[in-house]
Amino acid sequence: MFKSIKVNPSNTDTRIDKWLKREFSNLNQSFIEKNLRKGLIKINNSKVKSNYIVSENDIINIFNFSIEKYPCKIKKKDTKKIPVTIINRFKKIIVYENKDFMIIDKWNGLASQAGSKVNISIDDIIKNISIDYNLVHRLDKDTSGLMIIAKNFMTTKIISKLFYEKKIKKIYLAICQGNPINVNSLIKLKIPIKKNKNVFGETVTRFKILKKNKNFSFIAFKPLTGKKHQLRILSKKIGCPIVGDNKYNLDKTFYKESLKLNAHILKFTINSKEYIFKSEIPINFNNFLIKEKLNYNKIKNLLKLF
User: Fold this and answer.
1) Could you tell me the CATH number of the domain that includes residue 284?
2) Whole-model pTM?
3) What pLDDT, in 10s, does the model give residues 184-234?
4) 140 among known catalytic residues
5) In angstroms, rounded to a whole number, what is the distance separating the alpha carbons of residues 89 and 28?
6) Which domain-ending residue is among 117, 138, 164?
7) Contact in structure between 62 and 2 (CB atoms under 8 Å)
8) Cβ contacts of 239 within 8 Å, gap of 6 or more
9) Do 175 and 160 share a structural domain?
10) Residues 33 and 116 occupy one common structural domain
11) In which region does residue 192 sit, left (phi positive, over 0), alpha (psi from -120 to 50) or beta (all else)?
12) Per the residue annotation, which of 58, 105, 140, 245 is the catalytic one?
């Protein structure tokens, strides 16, 4: 049996082997390589290698097509039941939305992805809305602030590439216990990136103290790399762990406090249009600032600090 497929705009700029695996179930790499080599799979009537990048309107011809050999992938909507209260709360944290992506202002305690100790995650919620929605980055469960949700495959690729190329500017705010030696600095630090703690990754972070007293510092961080717990580990390393960080802050005086770390600013450009988003500082975070007289009235100018 013969089958011809025209590549649509949402499936472009990806390798033909990955395209085939996404379209059909259970295709292994050797099967794809063999059929491309024999010319049983051609693009625009020409033989190609597995690293060929498909383009819009390419015609993919499969000369040995059968449902048995090329079983179609069936997208199944996540049936995990999400309480109405969570859905309604999620809708309230959407700060921007267009046909390609949405920006949410995540609350403390909401995990990005499912895990052994996670009942409901952002991934669960968005898949309940649309199976096409994807996470393109993550925040720690206890970190509040801005996240990008891609609404289709093409946007997922575009934003993922922006993150990979470090073209998305991020600024975090944190209340730290203690005072760093430097008012501002750029720090390169190797941190564990595997559970066995024997594999390390290089991190690069800029920071600037916005305000401080003898016990606390209100700090703006600009991570130039994106490793798990990067800012939390860095804060501990420079002698001022984040308030409410029960993993890296050994002083348990404030163990009942929520983590005072907020993903505050996102800035990026897509299709020549610049986007800038700012998080609303959580009430408990702001109350701590007021209590410790760490109020900073120039937060709107944070982008100019770096």
Assistant:
1) 3.30.2350.10
2) 0.80
3) 999 999 998 876 667 888 999 999 999 999 999 999 999 999 899 999 999
4) yes
5) 41
6) 164
7) yes
8) 178, 179, 180, 181
9) no
10) no
11) beta
12) 140
